Amino acid sequence: MTAWGALDRGGPLAGVKVLDFSRILSGPYATLTLADMGADVIKVEPLGTGDATRDFPPFKGPLSHYFIALNRGKRSIALDLKDPRGLGVARALAAQADIVIENFRPGVMDRLGLGYDQLSQDNPGLIYCGISGFGADSPLTDRPAFDIVAQALSGAMSLNRAPGQPPNKLGLPLGDMAGSIFAVHGVLAALHQRGQTGKGQKVDVAMLDSLMAMLTYHAQIYFVSGKPPAPVGTKHPSIVPYGAFPTSDGHVIVACLTETFWVSFTRCLGLPELAEDPRFARYDERLANRDALEAIIDDRMRQEPTAYWLDRLDANDVPNAPILDVDEALEQPHVAARGLVQTVTHPTAGEMRVVRGPLRFDGVAPDVGRAPPLAGEDTLDVLAEVLGLDPAACEDLIASGAASAYGRATAVAEEN
């Protein structure tokens, strides 16, 4: 059998083979994370269209910003999974894979012949992860779900607002990303267990479950008090002062999570007497008198500009931050020092900057690897190198319409 690891670039998951049937965000972010840790990920895309996010503007050359963000470091093979020959290629790849990840509604992959029960017959060590909106046994299982649906049903959206304002979607697609993150947790745990038992297993991850797990102390406020936590905007439901405070020309984040920081903040404000005021001396007293305390802080901080307060807060060792736009965040010194942005080169789209993964191993961040592929860009290589098919068999699969090398052909044509 031909070795899979054509993209071995080191990392703790070097040699781990991942077959990725997922699309949009919740699955691709999980497989992106695995690729960042060194896994060799082959992405299976439908003929012609590829992943739906390939059509989302704006574009860098032929590649969508959305697809770039979630699919660097992977290879792409385009297959018709409803064609028996295309299905056969997918099953042959799954027979060699360590991990399969998909994010269709429960039952879809079974109907295609690519469910866990079917694939594990040929590969008993397979770790199969299905990410869906509601999981395999929910009363909501058959409903479609996207990030905003999970946010609404989890309670997270109700918290993401200022008092008296309508609920708002989180700017980050945390419903999708929570499912992705817990999927990675699950498959790595299953991979560890397989190392002990030799057996694979199915991992079921629901986006809604994942966001519910992230409620943490918000859920516990309800369980302890019997009342849901009220929306507080940028502020904290049980810690004061904490959040965004107005300055003469903007806002500053202040986070006094401990008594030490609170006392330091009173000195920063030039109001050390607040630390001795019986209304504000302890956590519970500050919370009970939140409105009065925040009015005092607001009045004082509005007297000076943001830069003044950032300097003062730093000098007094109080946790603080300016509120940056995305461009400012990406260009800040921290990002450069940590190497969080890396440039990759695509043969058609040219150079592009991407955000790399946050993990470091022995002080080294894994390389992001290759640029994101065109749809089907690696079909011929995967068929030949991974499955060991000869050139005639590869061309026969493409001629039959069971597979496509359109992306590869497009790249070659544009290069010439």
TrEMBL record:
Q: Which Pfam families match?
A: CoA_transf_3 (PF02515)
Annotated InterPro entries: CoA-transferase_III_domain, CoA-Trfase_fam_III, CoA-Trfase_III_dom3_sf, CoA-Trfase_III_dom_1_sf
- Identify the domain of life: Bacteria
Give the protein's recorded name. CaiB/BaiF CoA transferase family protein
GO MF annotations in UniProt: transferase activity
SUPFAM superfamilies in UniProt:
CoA-transferase family III (CaiB/BaiF)
Could you tell me which species this protein originates from?
Psychromarinibacter halotolerans
Sorted alphabetically, the keyword list is: Transferase
